Amino acid sequence: MRRYEFEAEGISPHRAVDKLLRGGVRVLSARPAKKNAVIIAVDGKDRKKVFAILKDSCYNIKNMRARGAERLREALLRGIGLVAGTAVALPAVLFVQGRVLKIDVTGSGAYLRAEVGDILSEGGVHLFSPFPEEPNSLTARILSLPRVSFCSIAAEGGVLTVCVEVKEEGSRPESLPLLAPEAGEVEELLVLRGTALVSVGDEVGRGDPVVEGFAVYGEERREVTVIARVRVRFAVRKKYETDEASARAQAALDFGETGDLRFTETEGGILAEGYGHAEAAMNFG
Fold this sequence. Notes:
Oligomer: single chain
Helix content: 25-40%
Mean pLDDT: 80
Structural class: alpha+beta
Shape: elongated
Distance between the termini: 72 Å
Order of helices and strands: EHEEHEHEHHEEEEEEEEEEHEE
Radius of gyration: 40 Å
Number of helices: 6
Low-confidence stretches: none
Number of strands: 17
């Protein structure tokens, strides 16, 4: 049996017990609470009938609550609900970790929020998507928007912040070229923004421009900020007046990788011959 207690408050509250009994409610107990109130216990199945019988009378019903085993059952049900809620919430928390929950566009170019949103969406970045692992391509596209001179993309705490700065009207755009770091053969070339002047396999001289700061849109040539990286392979022949271990260490500082170098012991030191590698980049994150 489910036992519920409530407080009936009003004039001659003991008459509420008589009213319930006449209405067919099984009253389990009744005890005075104060001068104008009585605490009544009923079978749980009669709870709705209690309200129906007393609703039009002069009694106020307060604190209807379970007692005994029924109270324990309700507590258990609440506990089960809490565990079930946790079981549902935990995967949701794990899901949103590393996801975009909000996109903020800041800086003097914040007015380009719609255009930036379109670029992010086309790149697969939107609410609840994973954060972009390689934002450079998105940055390059945002930099191609009119007057945009700077862009950075950062993610923290579910917020993807895109900082966009625009140049003042009448100011000259930054369109410096990317120059070859050494004379040799272009081994790698990655251009995110700008126009490549050479291709992989071409020979270049040290200081030669390899990417210029312009882009062609239809018939219009527009100055842009270069975002590019180049790697040049060049011939090496240098003697080090030291032992081989020290020569290898110094060659790594001088020429980058040493995998394409041969080290030969000669009179007066170690001769390094082969190929070195030099890299140069501009605005490349």
